[in-house]
Each structure stands twice: as C-alpha cells, then as structure tokens.
Automatic annotation (TrEMBL):
Assigned keywords, A-Z: Amino-acid biosynthesis, Decarboxylase, Lyase, Lysine biosynthesis, Pyridoxal phosphate
Protein name from the UniProt record: Diaminopimelate decarboxylase
Pathway membership, UniProt: Amino-acid biosynthesis; L-lysine biosynthesis via DAP pathway; L-lysine from DL-2,6-diaminopimelate: step 1/1
Orn/DAP/Arg decarboxylase 2 N-terminal domain span: 24-266
Residues the record lists as N6-(pyridoxal phosphate)lysine modifications: K49
Sequence ranges assigned to domain Orn/DAP/Arg decarboxylase 2 C-terminal in this UniProt record: 18-354
Subunit structure of this chain's protein: Homodimer.
GO terms, biological process: lysine biosynthetic process via diaminopimelate
Organism: Flavobacterium cauense R2A-7
Enzyme Commission number(s) from the entry: 4.1.1.20
Gene Ontology terms for molecular function: diaminopimelate decarboxylase activity; pyridoxal phosphate binding
Length: 401
C-alpha cells in the first residue's frame, strides 16, 4: 500500500489502527502454491493464531486454504467463517481431553502431541483418525520463544519415543492418518528443514494408512531492507522431488500439507499510530505514540524489528529517534532508528504488522484495542470496531463494598 492510501485510512478510521492488504495475502498464497505446483495433492492450512479476524479467514477460504488451529475457539471461528470441519486441523498443546473430544465430535482432524493423550484418546476413540505431532529435535532459526523443535521443547512427541508411539497404536488399534512436525518460526537454512523432513519420512514408513504428511511451517519473511527470507521456491523444488519419490516408495498418493501463518499475512499488515509527543533528552530524541506494547508486543517480547516509516513526511530529512509507547513501564518499539523528521501529529507506519500483532493485543492499562481494516479492491473495509469503555466493563461484576 502507498503512503497516501494509508494516510486516508488513518484519517477515516483514526489511530491506532491495523490495516491489512488483501492483495499481498493473495500473492503470498499464490507464491507458496506455485512453489509446490508439481505436488498433486497440496494442502495449505492457514495458522489462525497469526491473525484470526473472520473477514481474513473468509478471504483465505476463498483462495482455497484450509485452517490450522490450536484451540477450540479457533476451530469455532473457522466454522463461523464457513470452513468445513474436514478442512480444519487442530493441533493443541497441553489442553484437556474434554476439549480434544469436543473438537473431535465436530469432525475436525485431531493432531496429538503427547504420549499420555495419545493413549487415552486411542483407548476411547480408536475409530477416529488421528495425526501425530513428532518433535524431530531440529531447531529453526529466530527467537528461542518461537523455536519449538529442540530437545527441551514442550511441543510434539520426541522422535526417540517412536517405539512408545508404535506400542500405543498397536495396543489401541487406533487409526493414524497423518504425521506432523513443526520446527519453529524463521527457517533460515533450507537444508536443515530438509533434514528434519527426512526424519518425518522415516517415521511415516511405520504407519501404513497415512493420508497426509504435514511439514508445519515457519517460513521467514523479511522485516527490513536487505533482510534474509526463506527461499520457498528453492525449498519447493527440493522438497517436491523428495516427496514424490517417497510417495512411490510408500505405495500410495499422499497429501503434502503446510501451516503458514506469518508467511501469508505478516507483510500484508500495517500498524498506524499517531505521534503524541517528540521529547528531547540529554542523549535521545523520543517519538512517543498513541499506542504501546498493549497493541504491538512483538518488539518487547521477541526483540522483533518492525520497519517504521513516517508516512506524513516520507521524503523529509532523516534523524535518529527512539520510538516509544504510552504504557506506564519500559515500552520501546525502536531505539535510535533512522526515520524522516518527525513532528507531533505525524502518522507512523509499522510494517510487517499482519502476524502475531493484533492477536496478541491486550487491554493493559485499561486501554482499548484498536480497530482493524481490510484494504481490498482499492477500498478500505472496517472489519473490527475500535473498543469502547463498554467493552472494558462488559464482563466485570460490581459488588457492594
């Protein structure tokens, strides 16, 4: 989106504001499907946790996507958006058996990631097809909080526990129809990912009635100029060749599945915030905006770097600013960042604000969550209203004191 388009949206709906470009989501989806165009049965399951707005889910459904969910609430959102149960996979971690059974009753594909639940579910529901999440002990790049394939991860069943899995399957006579892995976000080295894929192929040989193999996701997107990203085209060529060879070895056609979240929506998103104050101290120039980590926590939580542009004056002289929020504790988006000269009242645009941004927003300091807008076909569509004081008070119960 262009600066003038973003400014017009900010003027119409106010700040702070999340804006998503539908065309970018479409192009990322096409890029991934084209990279695996030689795979007959390809399934893209969008990771709902990245951005769960119903209108975005409907957009992805129209493109042909399925859904990857991690909670029954995400499953319910997917059903509300029009996805059929057989287009949804549910991969929880540490949830109750009651929740898993409730999701299974809806006809959604279950993906189990621990031995205890696998045995319990198999004993009670051997007729319900189950996918097993394997931890290959292969770690993707990125922050440690989003690398989930290492040996100390709480996610998945260790590949070294495969004999235990096989014993449970044999004893319960349960039906295993899928094998899954997820190494974590920000895959930097394709060869490392392909190494993990080989572990999954070797595991798949032990199960004779598979319908699909799910390779998770974690494809890295660029966050700044010159930043590296996962080369999905190269990965597509290499993994496709290996997958087709495995199909012949396995003796039946399989579905190749992925669960991209960030890859599909991150670059579509812009977070717009208004500058409340420019504050010069003895060593720093602060640009204080009308938001904080209550709306965009990733820089504070993950140390992520979002490119920040002054769209009110995009061609001004560059100066160094530390961009901070209005939350009553350390609340920093960027330190000593080169940005065109900022004046109070200017609108700043944060790039890569489509994934794990609004979905991680909170009401800390009793602030309202911002509105969301979908830019589609050259028009701005409001897809979530800005919260009001009624939303803050909605579930509170006042008692006599």
């Amino acid at each position: 989106m262009e600066s003038n388009q973003l400014l017009s949206v900010a003027e119409e709906f106010g700040c702070p504001l999340y804006v998503y470009d539908a065309e970018k989501i479409q192009s990322q989806y096409n890029r991934l499907t084209n990279a695996f165009s030689k795979v007959e049965k390809l399934r893209i399951n969008y990771a709902v946790k990245a951005l769960s707005n119903l209108s975005v889910l409907k957009l992805l459904k129209k493109m042909g996507s399925g859904l990857d969910t991690v909670s029954i609430q995400e499953v319910q959102l997917g059903l509300r958006a029009g996805f059929s149960p057989d287009r949804i996979i549910y991969t929880p971690n540490g949830v109750s058996m009651d929740e898993i059974e409730e999701v299974a009753a809806l006809g959604v594909q279950i993906n189990i990631d621990n031995l205890s639940i696998l045995e319990q579910f198999g004993a009670k529901h051997p007729q319900i097809p189950v996918c097993i999440r394997i931890n290959p002990h292969v770690m993707a790049g990125g922050n440690s909080n989003i690398s989930v394939g290492h040996i100390d991860s709480k996610f998945g069943i260790s590949i070294h526990q495969l004999p235990h899995i096989l014993r449970i399957v044999e004893n319960t006579k349960m039906h295993i129809n899928g094998i899954h892995m997820h190494t974590g976000s920000d895959i930097l080295d394709i060869e490392v990912f392909l190494y993990a894929a080989e572990i999954l192929f070797d595991t798949a040989k032990h199960f004779k009635e598979l319908d699909f193999i799910d390779f998770g996701s974690g494809f890295k997107v660029p966050y700044k100029k010159g930043d590296i990203e996962t080369n999905v085209e190269e990965m597509g060529k290499k993994l496709t060749k290996r997958f087709l060879a495995f199909e012949k070895e396995y003796g039946r056609e399989l579905t190749l599945a992925f669960e991209p979240g960030k890859f599909l929506v991150s670059e579509s998103g812009y977070f717009l915030a208004k500058v409340n104050v420019v504050k010069q101290t003895t060593s720093t120039v602060f640009a204080g905006i009308d938001s904080g980590f209550n709306h965009l926590i990733r820089p504070m939580l993950y140390g992520s770097e979002h490119y920040i542009e002054n769209i009110s004056h995009p061609k001004g002289k560059e100066r160094f600013y530390s961009v901070v929020g209005y939350i009553c504790e350390t609340d920093t988006f960027a330190t000593n960042r080169r940005i065109t000269e900022i004046k109070e009242g200017d609108i700043l645009s944060f790039r890569n604000a489509g994934a794990y941004c609004f979905t991680m927003a909170s009401n800390y300091n009793s602030r309202f969550k911002p509105a969301e807008v979908l830019w589609m076909d050259g028009k701005a569509h409001l897809i979530r209203q800005r919260e009001t004081m009624e939303d803050i008070l909605r579930n509170q119960i006042e008692i006599e004191i």
